[in-house]
């Protein structure tokens, strides 16, 4: 599952999870557990909603964040 930041036209960015990245042939992009960047509920989405679908023409771009598994597998080198 990938954590994504969905940039919707004329709205604040929405954070959520995607099971798989969308195919360009898909009509909609769906994310689960939608929330604002500060983890507060999105005002125009009912707080009980678990999955939301946006049409491609309303999306400016999508950021795919590093998953927790990838973070564990990454070697972090710290300098003192």
Please, could you describe this protein's structure?
The longest helix has 6 residues, at 68-73. The chain has one helix spanning 68-73; strands at 2-8, 14-18, 28-35, 51-55, 59-64. A hairpin with a 5-residue loop joins β1 (2-8) and β2 (14-18). The protein has 80 residues and is mainly beta. The model has no long low-confidence stretch (mean pLDDT 85).
Produce the secondary structure layout.
Layout lengths: L1 E7 L5 E5 L9 E8 L15 E5 L3 E6 L3 H6 L7
Antiparallel strand pairs: 1-2, 1-5, 2-3, 3-4
Quick structural summary:
Helix content is 8%, strand content 39%. The chain has 80 residues and is mainly beta.
Compute the number of helices: 1
Please tell me the overall pLDDT: 85
The SSE order reads EEEEEH
Distance between the termini: 34 Å
- Strand count, sense and closure of the main sheet? 5 strands, antiparallel
In which order are the strands of the major sheet placed? 4-3-2-1-5
**Structural class assignment:** mainly beta
Q: What proportion strand?
A: 35-45%
Radius of gyration: 14 Å
Overall number of strands: 5
Write down the overall geometry.
globular
Low-confidence stretches: none
Q: Percent range for helical residues?
A: under 10%
């Amino acid at each position: 599952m990938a954590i994504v930041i969905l940039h919707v036209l004329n709205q604040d960015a929405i954070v959520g999870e995607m099971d798989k990245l969308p195919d360009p042939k898909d009509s909609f992009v769906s994310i689960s557990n939608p929330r604002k960047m500060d983890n507060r509920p999105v005002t125009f989405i009912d707080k009980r909603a678990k999955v939301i679908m946006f049409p491609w023409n309303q999306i400016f771009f999508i950021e795919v964040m590093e998953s927790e598994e990838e973070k564990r597998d990454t070697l972090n080198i710290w300098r003192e």
